[in-house]
From TrEMBL:
Residues 552-870 form the Peptidase M1 alanyl aminopeptidase C-terminal domain. Belongs to the peptidase M1 family. InterPro entries: Aminopeptidase_N-like_N, Aminopeptidase_N-like_N_sf, PepN_Ig-like_sf, Peptidase_M1, Peptidase_M1_dom, Peptidase_M1_pepN, Peptidase_M1_pepN_C, Peptidase_M1_pepN_C_sf. This is Aminopeptidase N. It comes from the Bacteria. GO terms for molecular function: alanyl aminopeptidase activity; metallopeptidase activity; zinc ion binding. It comes from Hydrocarboniclastica marina. Keywords: Aminopeptidase, Hydrolase, Metal-binding, Metalloprotease, Protease, Zinc.
Length: 871
């Protein structure tokens, strides 16, 4: 496969102003008639040939200004249609025949449980018709869809409906027009027998927007949450960013077979069912939260992505990083800001830091790729969002808003670069972000080493911050980053001290330092006793922090830090330190201080219960592995279990008390308060079951049976499945499947609970799940909920010392690659992390990778990940 490089970017030699599509949907295929108004791009050197992208298309006809083109005027190759002697402007007509029914890649036009739908980002449109399939070619689309009226009464495309009429032979047509020029990746089309849920939204300027959600009839009771979230997001974007919706209708469609979570097609968002459908009985709190943020995310793309889009795919983080930042701020405004931040950072530190230290490490604006779908990564998304967040911290909310206003105003209707974004922020704020731009070019996670000293005589506290960044593929040396570093200093009474830097005015009780140099020193004056520093409050920069915390300091921060995020962080550092000491054999018993910290938390009524639940959650095995060079998975797992069971034993009565103190209310409500209570209740249950507490088993059974919501039902099920109560495990699992087998989203939860469980998810069980009637290779959600959950969450079993987990994964990747390369490439990535593990483990993981690499016909997607993974 070819490597595509940012430095080779050239403007397109031709532009397309208008696209007229006529799509005929049939049971054995689809015919696409396309008419493109093409003209030569005046700003580049003229070329005589027009090259249109196309893949897996059967070309039936080519015309130029309505005339058939003779065979000598065009050439069809593997992935291109070339028209020779192209005039300055012409209407290019192309007719292609495609087979959506056989499209298992789920890119382009395909069929999912009886409905036609599309996924065009990044390069799916070229699987529908020949086109200049690149984001800097923006055109107005008119789309006429023709299909059988009975089977496909609903026919949707981008924009507004402008025409509909019956046709012969029981067919009908509906025509849509999108007034906004857009790149082809935002094109969408849907045809099916769907029910429609209506709602409406009045925009800030008083326009009425029709909101419509289209789902299969069995899902019509699962739309309320997404519609409510959509309206909240529309209001929020008006209030916080001054962005109003711009069409008369906004549509959401739920599709069962979908590679991604959702897609922001102009006016017609298409969602993976698992990211949009919910009812209290079928979806957990975590799913409710996920839907809230994804609905908002896709909606926010209407401005950050659609109105202003990317010039090329190297700029993907322009829209994704910014939009993730926007959706996470939105979510923070809906519930607890601190808990929200904890969730984002937890995932960043577990998954993104791991990516940054592995063979696929790339800057948020990569310099090259083979297959762009491999770059929809936690780096582009989550680290991209952190970079935008740093700009927000450096500029402050007002100047940041001025910058985003300028960005949207200056570039509306354009395809631009991350540099244009940063320049708008600079121009609006007057700040120089030259050095800051390194975040876009340099990969890797910077490390900040902190040293401090206190001088009683001069009452000064000295803090030195040194930064460095480990090498990443192709980048041995890094220049220093510019980052905001928020901190506070806690006095002996636990209160924040007044901060005054030597030679400056007092700056309050929490301040943001500008870090730009390899090493910087800060001297705080009027400090009467040695303080405990609260470093990197709110996680103001995506970096690793090194500071020799003592356990007593961590205990102190846990009980006193005014920054909720750092309280949580201290709890995680303390638990991590205890677990590591056990794993390395430096300590034999669980430090009593951890027990007393947890006991105090369980009894703490003053703290937000949601925060308490987060603080009590032990660091995940994935996170522990990420922190440990040459990790021994089994040892880490055993040490973590030892901590968990020893806490549960010591705190047994407290846990029962917490469980009783948070009974389930009569009706489910999606409120922070109720969710926090459910989190605590289910955590207590899980801890108690980890020590085979018979009384807790009774509680779990009754909670399982009586729950009026999926959070509690699944919480009880998961706790039992992860426990040693093998008989109860099987009874509840069978019962659950009996009850929910007709609901694919719930069946996916049922699969994942088993596949992710150290108890239930050993390899023979995983294989049995794959033989289950509900498992379906063609459905990415099923593949993810069994194989993905096993390799990504069930780390003890996946890393079984005999290497069976690795060869199993390799086999599944090889099997999936021909039909769905995008998902196969995602699935294989845990194997590429081999450098993290002790040598025997690393060897076995590489052997599995080589097995995949040895396949004769690997897709470009999987080839890129595996070949880079082996280097
Ligand atoms: N649909 C994906 C997202 O919104 C890709 N744009 O992030
Ligand atoms: Zn996105």
């Amino acid at each position: 496969p070819k490597t595509i490089r940012l430095k080779d970017y050239r403007e397109p030699p031709f532009l397309i102003d208008q696209v007229d599509l006529r799509v005929e949907l049939f049971e054995d295929g689809a015919r696409v008639h396309s008419r493109l108004d093409v003209r030569r791009n005046p700003s580049v050197q003229p070329e005589s040939e027009l090259h249109l992208d196309g893949e897996d298309l059967k070309l039936e006809e080519v015309t130029l200004n309505g005339e058939h083109l003779s065979a000598s005027r065009y050439v069809v190759e593997d992935s291109q249609l070339t028209i020779r002697d192209m005039p300055d402007s012409a209407v290019v007509g192309v007719v292609t025949w495609i087979k959506p029914q056989e499209n298992t890649r789920l890119e382009g036009l395909y069929k999912s449980s009886g409905m036609f739908c599309t996924q065009c980002e990044a390069e799916g449109f070229r699987r529908i018709t020949y086109y200049l399939d690149r984001p800097d070619v923006m055109a107005r689309f008119r789309t006429r869809i023709e299909a059988d009226l009975k089977r496909y009464p609903i026919l949707l495309a981008n924009g507004n409906e402008v025409d509909r009429s019956p046709l012969e032979e029981g067919r009908h047509q509906v025509t849509w027009e999108d007034p906004f020029p857009k790149p082809a990746y935002l094109f969408a089309l849907v045809g099916g027998d769907l029910v429609e849920r209506h709602d409406s939204f009045e925009t800030v300027s008083g326009r009425n927007v029709a909101l419509r959600m289209y789902v299969e009839p069995r899902n019509q009771e699962k739309c309320d949450h997404a519609l409510a979230a959509l309206k909240r997001a529309m209001r929020w974007d008006e209030e916080v960013y001054g962005r109003e919706y711009d069409l008369d209708v906004f549509m959401i469609v739920a599709v069962d077979d979908f590679n991604m979570g959702a897609m922001e097609n102009k006016g017609l968002n298409i969602f993976n069912s698992s990211c949009v459908l919910a009812s209290p009985e079928t979806a957990t709190d975590a799913i409710y939260d996920r839907i809230e943020s994804i609905v908002a995310h896709e909606y926010f793309h209407n401005w950050s992505g659609n109105r202003v889009t990317c010039r090329d795919w190297f700029q993907l983080s322009l829209k994704e990083g910014f939009t993730v930042f926007r959706d996470s701020e939105y979510s923070a405004d809906q519930g607890s800001r601190t808990v929200n931040r904890i969730d984002s950072v937890n995932m960043l530190r577990t998954a993104q830091f791991a990516e940054d230290s592995g063979p696929m490490a790339h800057p948020i604006r990569p310099a090259e790729y083979m297959e762009i779908t491999n770059f929809y990564t936690v780096t582009i998304y989550e680290k991209g969002a952190e970079v935008v967040r740093m700009i927000h911290s450096l500029l402050g909310p007002e100047l940041f808003r001025a910058g985003s206003d300028l960005y949207f105003e200056r570039h509306d209707g354009q395809a631009v670069t991350t540099d244009d974004f940063v320049r708008a922020m600079e121009d609006a704020s007057g700040r120089d972000l030259t050095q800051f731009r390194r975040w876009y070019d340099q990969a890797g996670t910077p490390e900040l080493a902190i040293e401090d000293s206190y001088d009683a005589a001069s009452q000064t506290y000295r803090l030195s911050i040194s930064q460095s960044c480990p090498p990443t593929p192709g980048q041995p040396e890094k220049a220093p980053f510019h980052l905001p570093f928020e901190l506070g200093l806690l006095g002996t009474d636990g209160q924040d001290l007044e901060l005054q830097l030597e030679g400056s005015e007092p700056s309050g009780r929490s301040m943001v330092l500008d870090i730009t140099e390899p090493r910087q020193e800060f001297v705080f004056t009027n400090i009467t006793a040695r303080p405990v520093p609260s470093l990197l409050r709110g996680f103001t920069a995506p970096v690793r922090l090194r500071y020799p915390w003592t356990r007593d300091q961590l205990m102190f921060l846990i009980s006193h830090d005014s920054d909720g995020f750092n309280r949580w962080d201290a709890s995680q550092r303390l638990a991590t330190d205890v677990i590591e000491a056990l794993a390395e054999g430096r300590e034999a018993e669980v430090d009593a201080r951890l027990v007393s910290a947890c006991s105090a938390l369980l009894k703490n009524d003053a703290l937000d219960p949601a925060l308490v639940a987060k603080m009590l959650s032990l660091p995940s095995l994935a996170y522990l592995i990420e922190l440990t060079p040459s990790a021994d998975v089994l040892k880490l797992h055993q040490a973590r279990e030892q901590v968990l069971t020893s806490l549960a034993r010591s705190l047994r009565d407290d846990l029962h008390e917490v469980y009783q103190r948070h009974p389930a209310p009569a009706a489910y409500r999606y409120t922070s308060e109720d969710m926090a209570a459910r989190a605590l209740r289910n955590m207590a249950l899980a801890w108690l079951l980890s020590i085979n507490d018979e009384q807790a088993l009774k509680l779990a059974r009754s909670q399982y049976g009586q729950a009026n919501n999926m959070t509690d039902r699944l919480g009880a099920l998961r706790a039992v499945v992860n426990s040693d109560f093998a008989e109860a495990r099987q009874t509840l699992l069978d019962d659950f499947y009996q009850q929910w087998q007709a609901d694919p989203q719930v069946v996916e939860l049922w699969f994942a609970v088993q596949a992710a469980s150290p108890q239930a998810g050993t390899l023979p069980h995983i294989k049995a799940l794959m033989e289950h009637a509900a498992f379906d290779w063609k459905n990415p959600n099923k593949v993810r909920s069994v194989i993905g959950a096993f390799a990504g969450q069930n780390l003890v079993n996946f890393h079984a010392p005999d290497g069976s987990g690795y060869s199993f994964l390799a086999e599944q990747v090889i099997r999936l690659d021909p039909s769905n390369p995008q998902i196969a490439a995602r699935l294989v990535s845990p194997l590429t992390r081999w450098k993290k593990f002790k040598p025997e483990t690393a060897d076995a993981m590489q052997r599995a990778l080589r097995e995949v690499m040895g396949q004769p016909k690997l897709s470009r997607d999987t080839y890129e990940i595996v070949s880079k993974g082996l280097s």
